[in-house]
From TrEMBL:
GO terms for cellular component: cytoplasm. PROSITE patterns: CYT_DCMP_DEAMINASES_1, CYT_DCMP_DEAMINASES_2. Keywords: Hydrolase, Metal-binding, Zinc. Its cofactor is Zn(2+). Zn(2+) binds at residues 70, 98, 101. It comes from Staphylococcus caeli. The keyword Signal does not apply. This is ComE operon protein 2.
Length: 153
């Protein structure tokens, strides 16, 4: 059996990160990659030191959990905190980024977004991505294929 493709490998990392999510509404993971090396990862959860949605329930306002920081933002903030440039990087996300995460991705210099699932794809986010020339692509992620690969090793 051939080894898994880079896209599968990095998307698998994002799905593993999503397993750390502390928000009950949706588990999301994001992996930032540069030169085929992982430079950051994130999942959606509370601010450090704050209670978690899985413990206290979501803190909802206008239908959105305001306690949660999105996976993409957590990954970008990890890069900022560590002084790692995201210019020209790629991000792999389990779900299409929200509008605010899309704007942050654009500002961070990321050039490509790969995502596994559509999730309220905002029309303005799509417009901004098209305007900025950032490639975004939905890629098939077959968890069974990756699991089968691991079993055959």
């Amino acid at each position: 059996m051939d080894r898994i493709k880079w896209e599968e490998y990095f998307m698998a990392q994002s799905h593993l990160l999503a397993l750390r999510s502390t928000c009950q509404r949706l588990s999301v993971g994001a992996t930032v990659v540069k030169d085929n090396r992982i430079i950051a990862g994130g999942y959606n959860g509370s601010v450090s030191g704050e209670v978690h949605c899985i413990d206290e329930g979501c803190l909802l306002e206008d239908g959105h959990c305001i306690r949660t920081i999105h996976a993409e933002m957590n990954a970008l903030l990890q890069c900022a905190k560590q002084g790692v440039s995201t210019d020209g990087a790629t991000i792999y996300v389990t779900h299409f980024p929200c509008l605010n995460c899309t704007k942050s991705i654009i500002q961070s210099g990321i050039k490509t977004i790969y995502y596994a699932e559509d999730y309220h794809n905002h029309k303005y986010a799509l417009k901004l991505l098209d305007q900025s020339g950032i490639e975004y692509k939905k890629i098939t992620f077959d968890q069974k294929h990756v699991a089968q690969y691991l079993l055959n090793k």
